[in-house]
Amino acid sequence: MNIKSLLLGSAAALAAVSGAQAADAIVAAEPEPMEYVRVCDAFGTGYFYIPGTETCLKIGGYLRVQVDGRSDDDLSGNDAGYRTNTRAQVRLEAKTDTEYGTLGSRITLRANNNSSNTTSITIPDAVGGGSTTYSSSQGNSDFFLEETYIELGGFRVGYFYNYFDTGLPGETVLADDRPYNNGGDGADTLNNSIRYTYDAGAFSVYGQVDAFNSQAGYKTDDAGNADEIGINGVITGKFGGVTLDFFAGYDFDNENAALASTLTAAIGPGSLGVFAAYSFGQNRYFDASEWTIGAEYAIKVTDKFSIAPGAQYWDNVELDGNGDFDGGDAWRVGVTADYAITENLAAKATVNYTDVDNGTDSADKWDGFLRLQRSF
C-alpha cells in the first residue's frame, strides 16, 4: 500500500512539473502598451500632446510665391523692374499649464530664395581703431529666426516684433517703413526684448524694453553703442466693434520719442482702419516723417473676396544731420485685393502710387505685387 501510494504521488508530481514547463513554453510576451497622440483643446485648435508629457504642441506655417514690380524711382535711384521670390515659414508653438500661469514658447523659421532681408552693421572695434561689419543669416536662402520667444504668465522674453509691425490689413498704409528710401528703412521692429502684458479682456496694456540691432555683437562703451536700448508701451481698449490703441516709445541712443495710434471699427460691409504717428526726431521706432496719417477701408465683397483701398500722407519727410525734420512731404494711394481660393489657399494683389517732395526734388513711383500663399 505504501509502495503504490509512493508511485502514484511521484507520477502526479512529474505530470505537474511537465505541464508547468509546457505551459511556460507557449506563453507569448505581452505587447508594450501604445500611447496614441491626443488632441489638446486647452489652448485652441491645432494643438496636440507631445507623447509622454503634458506639453501641447502646434505646428504651423506657410509657403508663399510672390512677384513684385515697380516703376523708376529717381529719389532712391531704383530702376523699374520685377523680381520673384518663394518663401517658406515654419512655426512651432508649445504651451503648458503651470502654477505661475501658461508657460509658452514660439520658434519661427523663415527662408527666402530671393532674400531682401540682408542685414549688416558696422561698429567701431573696442581696440585698434578699426571697425567690424556684422552680417545676419537673413542675407541668404538659409532658414533664419523670426519671432522666437518664451512666455510665462504675462511675461515674454526673446526675439519678437514691436507695435510698428502690426499694421492694417491692406498694403497701402506704411506703419514701419518710409514713403521712399532716404537713408533708412523705417521702424526697427524686430529685436531682442522683454515685455510684460496685463490683459483684462476689453482693456490691455504692455510695457517693453528693446535691445536694438540685436545681432551686432557686444555693446560696449568703447564701441560707442552702449545706449542701443529703447522702451515702449501700448494701451488698448475694445468697445464693441471698435478697437483703439495708443503707443509711446523712447530711443535712449537718439534721445527722441515717437507716438502712434491705430483705430479699427466695423462699419457697414467692412472695417475702417486709421493709423497716425508723430515723431520728435530721429529714433528707431518711427522717424519716416514728423507726422503721418493713413486710412484703409477693407470691404468684404463676398465670403471669399475683399478689397481694401487706402491712402496716407507724410509731412516733414527729410532728416538733417542733427536728426531733426527739415521739410518735404509725401502721399500714397493704392488698393489691395484678397481672394480665398479654397481653405488655407489665398491670393493677394496690390498696386500703389507714391508721390514724394523731399524739399529739393520731387518724384513719383508705382509698386505692387501678386502673391499666392498656402497656410497650414
Written description of the protein model:
By secondary structure, the protein is mainly beta. The protein has a single domain (58-375), classed as Beta Barrel (Porin), CATH 2.40.160.10. The protein has 1 helix and 20 strands. It has one helix at residues 2-26, and strands at residues 48-49, 56-70, 81-98, 101-112, 120-124, 131-135, 144-145, 148-152, 155-161, 190-199, 203-211, 229-239, 242-251, 256-267, 270-279, 291-300, 305-315, 329-342, 345-357, 362-375. The chain is globular, with a radius of gyration of 31 Å. Mean pLDDT is 84; it is low at 118-137. It is found in: Cell outer membrane. One of its GO terms (biological process) is monoatomic ion transport.
